[in-house]
Amino acid sequence: MKVEVQPIYEKGKSARARERVAMAKYRGILRVREERVHELGRIATVAALLSAVEGTETPVLPELHDACLVYVNGAQLRIRGFERVGDANYGQTWDVKAV
Predict the structure, then answer these.
(1) What is the pLDDT of residues 11-61, one digit of tens each?
(2) Please, are residues 4 and 97 in contact by the beta-carbon 8 Å criterion?
(3) What is the 3 state secondary structure string of the chain?
(4) Long-range contacts of 63-71 (CB under 8 A, 24+ apart)
(5) Which of 26, 25, 29 is nearest to 55 (CA)?
């Protein structure tokens, strides 16, 4: 599914609504599936935003682990989880719009 994603948090801190307007939006292919996450030592639902160039998928944003669909409204949805940045885990929510 081709989408545009806008992360709501930066290193676990929420951006105010007026700040979010200026924050970057990322385009790519949304993939959500269960997979073994070795760092967690278990299977988790993982959401990924991927760029597909010449048949190779590369991550656009850090993956969301324990991804949970919060809502769907037409072509818009919200996914919540946590992202791993270095050795730290941060809560993250993506506002997603189908394109």
Answers:
(1) 888 888 788 888 889 999 999 999 999 989 999 999 999 997 777 889 999
(2) yes
(3) CEEEEEECEECCEECCHHHHCCCCCEEEEEEEEEEEECCCCEEEEEEEEEEEECCEEEECCCCEEEEEEEEEECCEEEEEEEEEECCEEEEEEEEEEEC
(4) 64/92, 64/94, 65/37, 65/40, 65/89, 67/32
(5) 29
Token readout for 62 is 């850090």
* Residue found under tokens 């801190």: 13
- Residue 26 CA to residue 51 CA, distance in Å, equals 10
Residue with tokens 């394109």: 99
